[in-house]
Amino acid sequence: MAGKVLLINHGAALLTDTLISGLKSVDVPVVRVEPLIEQIEPEKDSTDVFLLFAGSYMYETPELLDYLRNQRFRDEKPLCVVGYSKEIAEIEEIIPKNMIDREFVRPIDVKGISDTLYHLASADDERKRKRHILLVDDDITFLKMMQSWFSGNYRTTVVKSGMQAITYLASHTPDLILLDYDMPITTGPQILSMIRSEPHTARIPVVFLTGKSDRESIMNIMRLKPDGYLRKSMNREEILGAVARVLEQLR
Hints:
The chain is of the alpha/beta class. The chain contains ten helices and ten strands.
């Protein structure tokens, strides 16, 4: 069975009912929710593909598109959009085109969409078998760069603060955590201490990310006994090689 599709649409419609039937006929489970964050939130972690049907409701709930953009960035789960050309263009003003995996312009071919979603959901099911890395850093530009480096080889989740990481870890267990050492408010060392103090996260390998390279700073980092550290100045090959070596030790 392929992964789950979360269909986001306002009100009942023959088109969505037909699409749901088509997906279920090829063993793709579908959950339909209203375009409300409080309905999407309980389903998001078990969702493999988000399918958004555009509509006039977008003008009443602009925060929804921000939410979906952040979800797409955080977990890299496919996001698809169905709508008229003008509606899709308006969505792209909030969610960049390169973050929308498929755009289906109405009128649509239901069977074509069903087949596409089946393959996306199946691919995401395969993606979940890859090693999972949690990236924690307050620098969005750095997060995007690292996420692009790891894509293809690993499943990545990104969060922008230490407390977001702790919240995420309450219900998820990644294979590796790459943690910024110098974060504001709640620092990397404080987050490492929290991770190590909880039985269900204590054994997750944690590697610090740091912009420091002087001997004293590195010695201070290693006194905290992380599973390693990576300098942010390292190039792509160096970072990928170091991460691969850490994960290889877990086999």
